[in-house]
Design brief:
Sc_DH/Rdtase_CS, SDR_fam, globular, oxidoreductase activity, acting on NAD(P)H, oxygen as acceptor, EC 1.3.1.56, cis-2,3-dihydrobiphenyl-2,3-diol dehydrogenase activity, alpha/beta, two-stranded antiparallel sheet, 266 residues
């Protein structure tokens, strides 16, 4: 018996990285998933995971994309128990002074459209069903949701906004729907960047990154599966709402002199 037996999940940003790994775990735990991504790589999940997954290629920064995903879950499975807003893009840590003022409105609209508006649209599209099932929402935040220097000013502001959204929705939807989040630090995945700034998809892990972490190790994308599963569970996180769970390899407690107390100075 799996931790998510019988639950139906709408999951955005499911085509690669953490999202793809968590969807695989959800299916193993008994969930059925509508997996949404702007990339058609998400369609491979049906071949890998069978009829428990319905892949949808859609732009989650649009109302139509989210409404279509929610309707697909209702048409195929008859209910929605969990919405996971995991889609996100980065600004490649570009400082504000390096962005032309004339380019800011488009960059803001693009990045906030995916990182902030999209989860709002997703929750709204699934809301009536989530209330009916007394379900839950999980949003993917970041180390940058509570700290500076986890990205550029656009990305950091957007992830701070996600943290605020988690808390506000937890208040608005209580007691019917729980709302929580996961804040990863460094994960070995490729991040889609802000096209309006001329940026391209890049690797999130640079050479030597592990030496900056207290754990001295880059965790695999599957290291986040358990936290997402716990938050989706109807038993393991029943007392949790409005919480952003930090899963950042200790990045937020990194020291100035050295990353961790027992890390060699050499």
């Amino acid at each position: 018996m799996g931790a998510l037996d019988g639950q139906v999940v709408v999951f955005t940003g499911a085509g690669a990285g953490i999202g793809r790994s968590v969807v695989t775990r959800y299916v193993a735990e008994g969930a059925r998933v509508v997996a949404v991504d702007i990339s058609d790589t998400v369609e491979d999940l049906a071949g890998e995971l069978g009829t428990a997954v319905v892949p949808i290629v859609a732009d989650v920064a649009t109302w139509e994309g989210n409404l279509g995903a929610a309707q697909a879950a209702l048409d195929r499975f008859g209910r929605i128990d969990v919405f996971v807003g995991n889609a996100g893009i980065t600004d490649n840590a570009q400082p504000l002074e390096d962005i032309r003022g004339a380019d800011l409105p488009a960059a803001f609209g693009e990045l906030f459209g995916v990182n902030v508006l999209a989860p709002m649209l997703g929750v709204r599209a699934c809301l009536e069903s989530l209330i009916e099932t007394r379900g839950s929402v999980i949003l993917t935040g970041s180390f940058a949701s509570t700290n500076a220097a986890g990205g550029g000013s656009l990305y950091t502001a957007s992830k701070h906004a996600v943290h605020g959204l988690i808390r506000q929705l937890a208040y608005e939807l209580a007691p019917d729907v729980r709302v929580n989040g996961v804040a990863p630090g460094v994960a070995p995945t490729r991040l889609r960047a802000t096209a309006s700034l001329g940026q391209v998809t890049t690797d999130s892990v640079l050479d030597g990154t592990e030496r900056a972490l207290p754990t001295q190790h880059i965790a695999s994308v599957s290291a986040y599966d358990g936290v997402f599963t716990m938050l989706a569970s109807r038993t393991e996180s029943v007392a949790m709402t409005g919480t952003l769970v930090t899963v950042d390899s200790g990045l937020s407690i990194r020291g100035i002199a050295k990353p961790g107390g027992r890390v060699s100075r050499a």
